């Protein structure tokens, strides 16, 4: 076997990957697979040096036991997101900008095997009966999968990488995402226990900003975080992390964000952090923020502060409890104190564009921009 013979390496890797998956289903994968792989390479490439044989074993293992063509990208600390669509070239995001790579999957079958391998540690699976899947990797990265026929051009795989530690306020100031004046405003808001809503578009950095604001909390507070997929990594001494659970293939066992918000109220939290509000849990969160659980944080998808508050109203109405729209609007205005608007500009930089204070609720909720400071 030649070190440069990638075709043979891929063929052996595919064979071992199939054997591994079969053994994993039988509960017998492990050391035996590694020893068999080493023995095969030694028997077919015995004339090569030990170092060369070790490299071949590593390359086959990456493809058979790891993430295949994604392995190199997953090791790159500069890659924030990995986007795969069938056998087309893989795209990645670095520094807020998308770029096409020279890496791709050779076949849909190879991609399906890699997807199966990625989902296995999370105890999740995806197939024609359940072609959509959202999961979290052991390192905290988020994985989303869409299979044909929903994905027309082959299996679609998205991986959002996650830093082991979030960025602090000081680091965001160094990167230009925050200004010292903004940090002072947010630190004052945390000290005064104001409820903060972080809004912005997809990929604008809402979770990063949420984590940085949470990093301004004191160590003596009990913080309960609630997320669909656990992403927040808070460097605080007393954090309880809750994560929702989708229904099983049989349609049982689902744990919604709404039920977790309700349960969190019984856990003696000083602060509640909801990773993202996207459904009927909005009403339960608003009630919690208005009844003594002040100083809490959450995010929402929206293109402006006003749009964020309107969307929060709409989501609260989805709870279907018969409250009039005006009462919901008043609840939003009472519960939310500040709206932090996060953007990703044309250069790819993520930054806070504005901070608005909620001041009144009439026919529309009124806000006042306090950052950047109005001219004059």
Task: Describe the protein in words.
With 376 residues, this protein is α/β, with parallel strands linked by helices. The chain folds into three domains: 65 residues; 96 residues, Beta-Lactamase, CATH 3.30.450; 203 residues, P-loop containing nucleotide triphosphate hydrolases (Rossmann fold), CATH 3.40.50.300. Helices cover 36% and strands 21% of the residues. It has twelve helices and 14 strands. The protein has an eight-stranded mixed β-sheet with strand order 9-8-10-11-7-12-13-14, with helices on both faces.
Q: What topology emerges from the helices and strands here?
A:
Layout: H1 6-26, H2 31-44, H3 50-64, H4 71-75, E1 79-85, E2 91-94, E3 97-100, H5 108-119, E4 132-136, E5 142-146, E6 156-160, H6 169-175, H7 180-191, E7 196-200, H8 206-214, E8 223-227, E9 239-243, H9 257-264, E10 271-274, H10 281-290, E11 297-301, H11 305-317, H12 325-335, E12 338-344, E13 350-361, E14 365-371
Parallel strand pairs: 7-11, 7-12, 8-9, 8-10, 10-11
Antiparallel strand pairs: 1-2, 1-6, 2-3, 4-5, 5-6, 12-13, 13-14
């Amino acid at each position: 076997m030649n070190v440069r013979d990638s075709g043979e390496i891929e063929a052996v890797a595919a064979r071992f990957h199939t054997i591994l998956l079969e053994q994993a289903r039988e509960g017998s994968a492990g050391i035996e697979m590694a020893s068999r792989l080493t023995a095969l390479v030694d028997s077919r490439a015995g004339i090569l040096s030990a170092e060369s044989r070790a490299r071949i074993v590593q390359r086959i293992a990456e493809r058979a036991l790891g993430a295949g063509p994604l392995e190199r990208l997953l090791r790159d600390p500069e890659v924030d997101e990995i986007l795969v669509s069938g056998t087309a070239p893989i795209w990645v995001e670095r520094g807020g900008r998308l770029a096409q790579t020279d890496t791709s999957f050779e076949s849909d079958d190879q991609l399906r095997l890699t997807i199966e391998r990625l989902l296995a540690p999370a105890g999740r699976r995806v197939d024609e009966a359940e072609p959509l899947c959202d999961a979290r990797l052991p390192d905290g990265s988020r994985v989303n999968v869409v299979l044909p026929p929903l994905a027309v051009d082959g299996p679609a795989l998205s991986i959002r990488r996650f830093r082991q530690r979030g960025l602090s306020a000081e680091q965001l100031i160094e990167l230009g995402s925050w200004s010292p004046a903004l940090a002072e405003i947010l630190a004052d808001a945390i000290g005064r226990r104001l409820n903060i809503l972080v809004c912005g578009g997809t990929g604008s950095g809402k979770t990063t900003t949420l984590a940085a604001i949470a990093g301004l909390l004191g160590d003596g507070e009990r913080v309960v975080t609630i997320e669909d997929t656990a992403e927040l990594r808070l460097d605080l001494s007393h954090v309880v992390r809750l994560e929702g659970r989708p229904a099983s293939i049989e349609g049982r066992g689902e744990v919604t964000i709404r039920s977790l918000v309700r349960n969190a109220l019984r856990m003696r939290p000083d602060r509640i952090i909801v990773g993202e509000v996207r459904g009927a849990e909005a009403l339960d969160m608003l009630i919690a923020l208005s009844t003594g659980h002040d100083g809490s944080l959450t995010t929402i998808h929206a293109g402006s502060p006003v749009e964020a508050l309107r969307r929060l109203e709409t989501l609260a109405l989805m709870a279907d409890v018969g409250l009039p729209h005006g009462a919901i609007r008043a609840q939003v205005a009472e519960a939310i104190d500040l709206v932090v608007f996060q953007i990703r500009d044309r250069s790819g930089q993520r930054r806070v564009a504005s901070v608005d204070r909620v001041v009144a609720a009439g026919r529309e909720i009124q806000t006042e921009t306090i950052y950047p400071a109005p001219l004059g």
